[in-house]
Amino acid sequence: MVDPGVLRFLDLVRRELGAADSRMEFGGKEPNDPCIIWHFVEGGSRIVVVFETPPAEKGPLTRRLDTLAEAFFSTTEHAMGPASARTPPDVAGRRLDDELTRLAERAGARGAAVFDVASPVVWGASRAADAAADALLEDAIVHMRGTESELRPGHTSRFVMKPDVECLARVFAGLYVLILVFEGPLSEPTAVGAVVHALPLIERLVLALPPVDPPSGGAKVMRLPLPRRG
Question: For the whole model, what pTM was predicted?
Answer without folding.
Answer: 0.64
